[in-house]
Amino acid sequence: MDLPLVYHPDYSFPFPAPHRFPMDKFARLHDHLRASGLLHDGNLHSPERCSRELLALAHDPDYVNRFHDNALDATALRRMGLPWSEALVARTTRAVGGSLLTADLALRHGLACHLAGGTHHAHRDFASGFCIFNDLAIISLSLLASGRVERVLIIDCDVHQGDGTATILADVDAAITVSLHCENNFPARKATSDWDIPLPRGLDDQGYLHTLQQTLDYLLPLYQPDMVLYDAGVDVHQSDALGYLKLTDLGIAARDRLVIDSCLGRDIPVCAVIGGGYDNDRDALARRHGILHHSAAQIWQQRGLG
User: Fold this and answer.
1) Phi, psi dihedrals of residue 113, rounded to the nearest 5°
2) pLDDT of 15-61, one tens digit each?
3) 55: domain CATH number?
4) Alpha-carbon distance 120 to 252, whole Å?
5) What is the DSSP string of 227-261?
6) Which residues pair with 45 in a beta bridge?
7) Measured between alpha carbons, how far is residue 10 from residues 7, 32, 132, 145 in Å?
8) What is the three-class DSSP state of 53?
9) Which of 30, 114, 120, 121 is flagged as catalytic?
C-alpha cells in the first residue's frame, strides 16, 4: 500500500482573473503528483462534502447557513477575499471533507496527506484571508467529540499566524495550537495560540530548522498527543509573493521530514494539509506544494507503513 492521498476535482474551478488566490493550484498539484507516479488510482481517496452540522462544530450555524445561501453582506465578502459562487460552496465544503478524510486515514495508517486544506484564518463567525471554514479546528473538535483521540496538537508552519484556529480552540484544552509564523506579516492583529513562535523576516533554512527542532523536541514529549495536524504551508519559500521568509526547496523538504519523522518516531499519527502558497508561476507553486507529498512518501517507504 502507498501513502494515502486525498483530492477531488471540485478543489479547482474556473476563477476570475486576475486574482491573488491561486485557485488552480490544487488541480496542478494533482497533475504534478500523478505525472510523477506518486499519485495513482490505488492511493487516491475522494472525499464527501462536509455537512452543515459538522461545520457547526467550529462555526456559528448562522454563518454556515449564510455562506451556503449566498447571504453574506458586502463587508463579509470583502473580508473573505473570494467571490461567492455555487462552485465555491462545493469547493469549500468538499475540501473540509477532504481534511476530515485525511485525518481518518492518518489515524488508520499513521500518515496521510491532503492536496488542499489548512484554512487557518477562518474564524467562528466570519471568513478571512481566503479561508471560509477552519478545517484544522473542525478536525480537532470532531475527533475529540467522537472520542477517537484525547489530545490533538496542531503544528502550523504556514508563514501566516493561524489566528482563526487559535481563537476557535482557545478554550479547548485538549486541542493545542502551535504557530510558527513570520512576525511582521498578515494578520496585522495576532491572536493568542497556545504556543506562538514569531520568526523574523528573512529567516533562512538553517535558522528556521533550528527553531522548529527545538519546538518539536519540547512540545511533543510535553503533550504526547494522539494526533498531529500539520499545516505545511509553502509561503515560507524565498520566492513566495506573500511570505517574507527565505526557505529554499531543500529547506521545505527538510522541514516536512523533520515534522513527520519526529511525530512518527513517537508513534503519533500525522494528518498533513498543504496550507498557503502564492506565486504567479502556478506550476512552480504546485511543485513546491508537492514537496510535502514526496517527503511523506519517502518516509512512508522508509518506515514500512501501510
Assistant:
1) -130, 140
2) 877 778 889 999 999 999 999 999 999 999 999 999 999 999 999 99
3) 3.40.800.20
4) 19
5) EEEEE--STTBTT-TT---BB-HHHHHHHHHHHHH
6) 6
7) 9, 17, 16, 28
8) helix
9) 121
| Amino acid identity, position 132 | I
Contact by Cβ (8 Å): 141, 57: yes
Reported residue count of the chain is 306
Residues 6+ apart with CB under 8 A from 240: 159, 234, 277, 278, 279
Cβ within 8 Å of residue 20, ≥6 positions away? 81, 241, 278
Query: Which of 292, 224, 222 is CA-nearest to residue 258?
Result: 292
- Amino acid identity, position 230: Y
Please tell me the predicted confidence (pLDDT) of residue 20. 81
**For 261-278, what is the mean pLDDT?**
97
Quote the pTM value: 0.97
Q: pLDDT value at position 178?
A: 98
In which domain, by residue range, is 54 found?
5-12+20-303
Q: Look at residue 243 in the predicted model and tell me its pLDDT.
A: 87
Do 262 and 220 form a contact (C-beta atoms < 8 A)? yes
Q: Which residue has the cell 488510482?
A: 41
Number of folded domains that form the chain: 1
Q: Report the alpha-carbon distance of residue 260 to residue 228 in Å, rounded.
A: 9
- Separation between Cα atoms, residue 22 and residue 36, nearest integer Å: 22
> Is 160 a residue of the active site?
no
pLDDT in tens, 112-165: 999 999 999 999 999 999 999 999 999 999 999 999 999 999 999 999 999 999
